[in-house]
Amino acid sequence: TVRAEPLEVSAFSVQSYTPPIYPKSDVEEMFLYEALRKSFMFSSLSQQEMFTTIYPLIDSMEKVHFNKGDTIIQQGATNCNYCYVIFEGSCSVIIDGNVLG
Questions:
Q1: Cβ contact 62:55 at 8 Å
Q2: pLDDT tens digits, the chain, 101 residues: what are they?
Q3: Phi then psi for 100, rounded to 5 degrees?
Q4: CB of 42 within 8 A of CB of 54?
Q5: What pLDDT is recorded for position 3?
Q6: pLDDT at position 12
Q7: CA distance 6 to 17
Q8: Is-contact 65 89, C-beta < 8 A?
Q9: C-alpha torsion sign, points 101, 37, 85, 97
Q10: Residues paired with residue 46 on neighbouring β-strands, in sequence order
Q11: For residue 96, how many other CB atoms are within 10 A of its CB?
Q12: Contacts 24+ apart (CB under 8 A), 60-67
């Protein structure tokens, strides 16, 4: 089950919003494009929709670094406002104390 809280957005706020743009290398940009294109969230989009949706999203993605042992998302947390794509390295997924990967 996927659930999202409703978000009240006015036409004015959407028209006036300018997302941030973070610089990326060509390699990082292509990696992100391929990762997002294969994601269930975007896999049903047409080529045109992919272009108008994914590239602005890629532009607004900011690179962050984590150290070994850092928790990226804690199970049960309700303030997870980010989507992560692992470019380099690895992480473990732990649900109810069981390591899934």
A1: no
A2: 233 444 455 555 566 777 788 899 999 999 999 998 888 888 888 888 888 888 888 888 888 889 999 998 899 888 877 888 899 999 999 999 999 87
A3: -95, -20
A4: yes
A5: 39
A6: 54
A7: 18
A8: no
A9: negative
A10: none
A11: 6
A12: 60/19, 60/20, 60/21, 60/22, 61/22, 61/24, 61/32, 61/85, 62/20, 62/22, 63/22, 63/24, 63/28, 63/87, 66/91
**Residue 19 in 3-state DSSP?**
coil
Residue with tokens 């089950």: 1
Total-model pTM: 0.72
Whats the size of the chain, residue-wise?
101
* Of 22, 89, 93, 17, residue with least CA distance to 57: 22
